[in-house]
Every structure is written in structure tokens, then in C-alpha cells.
Specification:
- By secondary structure, this protein is mostly helical.
- It has three domains: about 40-340, no CATH class; about 345-450, no CATH class; about 455-550, no CATH class.
- About 65% of the residues lie in helices and about 5% in strands.
- It contains 25 helices and seven strands.
- The chain has helices at about 10-15, 20-30, 40-45, 45-55, 75-85, 95-120, 125-135, 140, 150-165, 170-185, 190-195, 200-205, 210-230, 230-240, 240-255, 260-275, 280-290, 295-315, 330-340, 345-375, 380-385, 395-415, 425-450, 455-470, 485-495; strands spanning about 65, 65-70, 475-480, 500, 510-515, 525-535, 540-550.
- It has a five-stranded mixed β-sheet with strand order 4-3-5-7-6, with helices on one face.
- About 45% of the residues are buried.
């Protein structure tokens, strides 16, 4: 039974209409994006190529601390460097670079909404926007430096173009071609394999695209996409052929390596389950409803996109959370199609489950802040102290006031939300955005303390300056340093380490990280001159600077 939507008032139409959604998306994207250091992991790692570009190196092929980084082509880094340069007068470099994530997520939300409108009609546009930004796994990655967000946006752009092909064959195919080429420039061969096959597949499998005009336009779009995609590798080949060979070998290793094993498939399903919540239950309902018309473009296009992305995920064999990001546009489209047809009981159950689960998370955020501010509850307070013994909470009164205001606004918005077919996704998107804002206000300083390398690098910089006072310009060797550590060293202190080759180095200094992984055996001539411990438990790290005896 389909619910009858109630007629909202003028104020409700403003708050919960297009203007309100635009404000909600802006809050979601901008709160927590700036005001904190590059964090351990991808945030610090992928700042490295942007920093290199702003220093005049690696514009064509990404570089990290003087070494080539083969993870992704440069589209995201170009946008990040441009925004960091444009915002240099009022934003820190890393904050300006993160604005690229906001740009690409906003594009992903926009193109997903417009694709849903083209495939399913105007009523599906708002649910598609809300569900795209409402994927549980997106929220953290949307606020870090993450090149796969560019793949998400360009994949959504490709789907938008292909959705237009039955009505506007040439314009839709050209838009999809640009989306495919830019997806390759953002994510490499894996992103190309997730987009380019859509052209022949929809032409062969969908009756909507088998007309002469649509088929010709799709072939034209595919040729244009492949031609545009070839420009970057060609430019790299002409200017830095050795870098192109390095990149191609890495891409081939990813595609030809062992895929997910049986046990990893189970873990992958668990990851998909929470990462794409609450999209996947609605997707299953949509596919069940459409089981007799699955060959229509409105169902076939997002379904093929999801299959291609999941196939690459399995073949690549990497269970990193960020690798699921390109799946979100297809999932959001399929879910948006099913929202208006949800039965009253299912819609109410999803609505209440969303409210209750987010409310529980909100209470946990308040408890975590209480443990920092007043030491209650005692068990959680001990955990906070153990993981960040040097953390000092500043301005708890201001945090309390802002947190209370966010909580009250959340309650007011949810309680006045008009009943409609979009109520469940709207409640989830509003609740997730308010929960994120609450976590940023109450917990961001604590997270920044534990995930930033600023204090570590500052201490190391002083130690290195002391050692170099007697040997100016002495190089520092390293082995096994993660890329995010190298990037942080380069960003905070301009320190670039030299790789050890053949178990030997001419450098008089050696930087070693002990993070519970096996370490190489050091010769007795190396003596420690500085040590810095950070984190606790599985996150514990110990940095040691050693000097060769007699240097």
C-alpha cells in the first residue's frame, strides 16, 4: 500500500524543499572539512601529491616527497592544488586541498539526483540526493583528501549522460564520454573498466538504446571517451616514459593479482552491509519490484554499473573501505526508485530504525565528550586518557553550548518533517548530518590530537637540526615508512628521507618506525639519538632517529 503524502505548509516547503536540501548538503560537506591537521592514513597520504604540485613538481605525474606515487592519475590532485592555491590567503594548505572532496561529492549528489529524475521522474530526484549523501560509509571519506571521490563523481556524470541517451542521444553520449574520460583521469584503468563497458552493454541489452540514433551516438561516445582517456598516458609517455611504465606495471598488478578469497568475500559482504546502509535494503526491494522489467534502461543502467564496480572490487582483492565509494551512485539510484513504492510498514520501520540508531550514536558522542570534560563515565574516561594522555580539552563550555544547539535543532527538524514518500531518507540524511556536526563540535579536537603527526614532526625537526649542526645537509635514510608519514614529514618540516637500497646507505642518519610490524635488523654501529612515542594499543607508534657511530 502506497502512503498518501500530506500537503506541507509554505515554511515546510522552504525548509524541506530545494533550498533546505542545498543547505543540508552544504552543512554535510563543509562542517569538519577544515580546521584540523592532515590525519594519519589517506588524508595525509594524498596531501603529498598536492603539496608537490604547489612546489612545482609532479603536475603531470603525481609525486610524494620526491618519489612517484602510482595510486591514481592526477585529476583529484589538480583540483586540490588549484583550490589550495586559491584559498591560500585564508585557509591552511591542507584545508584548501580538502575542498576538492566537497566539490566532487557535491557533483556526485547533483548528477545522481539528475540521473534519477531522467530515469524515474521528478519525485525520485530528492530521494536520490538524500540517499547519495546518506550512505553511512561516505561521511568520513567525504571529509578527507580522497581521490576516489573524484571517481564517484565522474561515474555519476557518466550515468547521467547515459540516462539521457533515449531522449538526447548525442548530447547524452558526449556527456557520458567526458564522464568516462575524467573517471579514468581520476581512478586509472579500474575506473575506465567501471564506466566504458556501459556504452556497449546498454546498447546491446536495453531496447531503449537499440535505435539507430541511440546506437550510433553510443558508439561515438565510446570512441570519444577512449580518445580523451588516452591523452594523459600519451602526455606521460612523451615527457616521463619511465613513470608511465611504473604506473602500467602497478595497474596490471592490481588487475591480475589474487582476488578476494572465500573468507575475504564474507568480510567484504560485512563491509558492504554497513558501508552502504541504509541503501541496500531499499535496493533489494526495488529490484524485486522490477524483476519483470529489469531489461528497461531505468533498471539496467544502475544495475550494470553496480555489477561492474563490484566485479572490480572482487578482482582487485583490496578490502579498503574507500574502494566501495564508486558503488554509491548506482546504489542511490536503485534505492531512489524504490522509495516511493515502499509499503507503509516497511517505510515506518526504516524511518524509526534510522531515528533510533542515530539517536543512540548521538548519545554515545555525548558520553565520549563527557568522559573528556568531566571524567564520566569512568571506564570511558580511562580509555580516553590511555589513548591520548597529553590531550587537554579547551573551551568545554563553548562545545557544550554548540552541541546542545545542534541536538535541539536536530530534534526540531525531525519532529516537524512533513510526511511524504521521502520521509525515511530525509530523516536519515538530516540525522546523519546533525550527528556528524555534533561529532565535529564535541570530538574533533580529541581526534586531531591522536591522528596528527604535527607534534611528532616538530620534535624530529629539532633533533635533526641538532644533528645537522655538525654535519650540514646530512641525509636521512628510512625503510618501510608509510606514505602518510613521508607526506607528513615533507609537509610539516620539509624533511625527505632516502630509501635504503641493498641493505646499505651512505646517509649518517636513519629514521625507523616501530608500529608492531617486523623491522629490519640494524647493524650495531647505529645508535639512537631521538625517540618519540605516540598512540596506544594497536595504534601505538614509536619513531626512532639513529646516527651511524663515527659519523
Amino acid at each position: 500500500m502506497i502512503r498518501e503524502p500530506e500537503t506541507p505548509s509554505l515554511l515546510q516547503r522552504r525548509i524541506y524543499g530545494t533550498v533546505g536540501i542545498a543547505v543540508l548538503v552544504a552543512l554535510y560537506l563543509l562542517v569538519g572539512l577544515v580546521g584540523h591537521d592532515p590525519w594519519r592514513g589517506d588524508d595525509a597520504r594524498y596531501l603529498g601529491p598536492i603539496l608537490s604540485m604547489l612546489r612545482g613538481e609532479g603536475w603531470l605525474f603525481p609525486m610524494l616527497a620526491g618519489e612517484p606515487l602510482v595510486d591514481y592519475p592526477p585529476l583529484y590532485y589538480w583540483v586540490g592544488a588549484l583550490l589550495a592555491w586559491a584559498g591560500s590567503g585564508f585557509l591552511a594548505l591542507h584545508d584548501g586541498a580538502r575542498l576538492a572532496s566537497a566539490v566532487f561529492v557535491a557533483l556526485g549528489v547533483y548528477f545522481s539526483a539528475r540521473t534519477a529524475e531522467a530515469l524515474y521522474g521528478r519525485p525520485s530526484r530528492t530521494p536520490a540526493a538524500l540517499l547519495t549523501m546518506g550512505g553511512l560509509g561516505l561521511v568520513l571519506h567525504a571529509h578527507e583528501i580522497q581521490p576516489l571521490l573524484a571517481v564517484l563523481a565522474m561515474l555519476a556524470m557518466t550515468l547521467r549522460g547515459l540516462a539521457l541517451v533515449p531522449q538526447q542521444p548525442v548530447a547524452g553520449s558526449v556527456l557520458a564520454a567526458f564522464g568516462t574520460a575524467l573517471a579514468f583521469l581520476a581512478g586509472g584503468i579500474g575506473a575506465l573498466l567501471a564506466t566504458a563497458p556501459l556504452f556497449p552493454l546498454v546498447m546491446m541489452l536495453s531496447a531503449d538504446c537499440r535505435t539507430p540514433r541511440a546506437s550510433g551516438a553510443l558508439l561515438l561516445g565510446l570512441c570519444l571517451a577512449l580518445t580523451l582517456a588516452a591523452l594523459w598516458p600519451l602526455a606521460v609517455h612523451l615527457n616521463q616514459p619511465e613513470q608511465l611504465g611504473l604506473w602500467l606495471r602497478d595497474e596490471w598488478a592490481r588487475l591480475s593479482g589474487p582476488g578476494l578469497s572465500g573468507g575475504e568475500v564474507v568480510r567484504g559482504l560485512e563491509l558492504l552491509g554497513w558501508f552502504t546502509w541504509p541503501l541496500w535494503p531499499i535496493v533489494l526491494w526495488s529490484l524485486w519490484r522490477a524483476r519483470r522489467t529489469i531489461g528497461q534502461l531505468r533498471w539496467l543502467l544502475p544495475l550494470l554499473s553496480a555489477v561492474l564496480v563490484l566485479s572490480h572490487f572482487v578482482i582487485r582483492g583490496d578490502l579498503s573501505q574507500a574502494n566501495i565509494l564508486p558503488l554509491i551512485p548506482a546504489m542511490a539510484l536503485l534505492a531512489a526508485a524504490g522509495v516511493p513504492t515502499l509499503r507503509r510498514g516497511a517505510a515506518n520501520a526504516l524511518d524509526w530504525f534510522s531515528l533510533m540508531s542515530l539517536a543512540v550514536f548521538g548519545i554515545l558522542v555525548w558520553l565520549a565528550w563527557s568522559a573528556q570534560a568531566v571524567g564520566w563515565p569512568p571506564g570511558l574516561a580511562r580509555h580516553v586518557e590511555r589513548n591520548a594522555p597529553d590531550f587537554v580539552l579547551h573551551q568545554p563550555g563553548l562545545q557544550l553550548a554548540l552541541g546542545a544547539a545542534i541536538t535541539l535543532l536536530w530534534i526540531a527538524l525531525v519532529s516537524r518533517l512533513p510526511r511524504s514518500t521521502s520521509r525515511a531518507p530525509a530523516n536519515w540524511a538530516i540525522g546523519l548530518t546533525m550527528l556528524w556536526c555534533l561529532a565535529v563540535v564535541l570530538l574533533m579536537p580529541w581526534f586531531d590530537n591522536g591522528r596528527s603527526y604535527r607534534e611528532t614532526v616538530r620534535s624530529l625537526e629539532i633533533a635533526v637540526a641538532g644533528e645537522r649542526s655538525s654535519a650540514p645537509g646530512a641525509c636521512i635514510a628510512s625503510t618501510g615508512l608509510p606514505e602518510h608519514v613521508k607526506s607528513s614529514l615533507d609537509y610539516f618540516a620539509g624533511i625527505r628521507t632516502v630509501r635504503i637500497v641493498g641493505d646499505s646507505t651512505p646517509c649518517p642518519l636513519l629514521l625507523v618506525l616501530n608500529d608492531r610490524r617486523p623491522m629490519m635488523r640494524l647493524a650495531p654501529e647505529w645508535k639512537p639519538v631521538w625517540e618519540f612515542r605516540r598512540g596506544a594499543g594497536r595504534r601505538a607508534e614509536t619513531f626512532t632517529l639513529l646516527r651511524r657511530e663515527g659519523s
